[in-house]
Amino acid sequence: MAKTAIITGGSRGIGRGMALKLGEMGYNVVINYRSDSSKALSDDLAKEITEKYGAETLVVRADVGKYEDCETLVKAAVEKFGGKIDVLINNAGITNNSNFIDITREQYENVINVNLISLLHMCHLALPHMLDNEANIINISSVGGLVGVTNQADYCATKSGVIGLSRALAVEFSSRKVRVNVIAPGMIMTDMLRGVNQDELNALASTIPLGKIGDVEDIAGAMEYILKASYVTGQVLSPNGGFVMQ
Ligand code: NAP
């Protein structure tokens, strides 16, 4: 029987790349999205995964910042695919890009909710279905969780928090055969970089030792490595072109 993977924010960007890789690896793929504009993208992605790889899919709308929506997402996955969850990828995330004087309370609370509290919700709800089953949680952080970035105080706080949460869960659940790891991407070409013009992108690329912005496939490859690496838990893997060396 195929294993089941849930990916939050799977409609586009890094999440889409990882969803395709999960399908290629033979998982049933549960694709989560939030906005109206992502519904068609998610349905198309589900179709593509089934046509290309023969994998089963389920598309579930849920705002992972809301506990009740996370309950809906986990319940739908468990009901459709036989009671257990093998992989949880907490990928959904947002950013503000605002200096810390002008940022509003509403803006930073929203980032903390979507980027960090949502992971507590999802892990809390999914873990009971993952125990004693060689399961994996992969949480998506950022190089912003490893170093300071200007105009990203709220984002950096959440992405450091993701690492702390993941290490604690890795220790607590290793005896129940759940591995918990982090991917901390560097700059990856997705909608998250849509506000950056080509000249700025070139300037950014020139600061990266490997000389380029990364692709979603770079992160999907890191995910595949972690899923196969049975002796790896509590670790942070940072595909970032050498931009940050830990
Ligand atoms: P993206 O292209 O903007 O996609 C974000 C995804 O998250 C979308 O599918 C979006 O769905 C979903 N999402 C946002 N808020 C959500 C919510 N409340 N509930 C459910 N889904 C939600 O972003 P990305 O660049 O792929 O980033 C993915 C992850 O990688 C994020 O955690 C980000 O912080 C991290 N990351 C990205 C980069 C980068 O350079 N791109 C670098 C480091 C880390 P909707 O369209 O439905 O809102």
Which helices and strands occur, and which strands form pairs?
Blueprint: E1 4-7, H1 13-24, E2 28-33, H2 36-53, E3 57-61, H3 67-80, E4 87-90, H4 105-126, E5 135-140, H5 153-173, E6 178-183, H6 198-206, H7 216-228, E7 236-237
Parallel strand pairs: 1-2, 1-4, 2-3, 4-5, 5-6, 6-7
Helix pairs in contact: 1-2, 1-7, 3-4, 4-5
Q: What letter string, H or E per element, gives the SSE order? A: EHEHEHEHEHEHHE
Number of helices: 7
What is bound: which ligands?
A: NADP nicotinamide-adenine-dinucleotide phosphate
Strand order in the largest sheet: 3-2-1-4-5-6-7
Major β-sheet annotation: 7 strands, parallel
User: Tell me, what's the shape?
Assistant: globular
Class computed from helices, strands and strand pairing: alpha/beta
Number of strands: 7
Uncertain ranges = none
Evaluate the radius of gyration: 17 Å
Mean pLDDT: 97
Question: What separation lies between the terminal Cα atoms?
Answer: 39 Å
Helix content: 40-55%
Please indicate the percent range of residues in DSSP E strands (runs of 2 or more): 5-15%
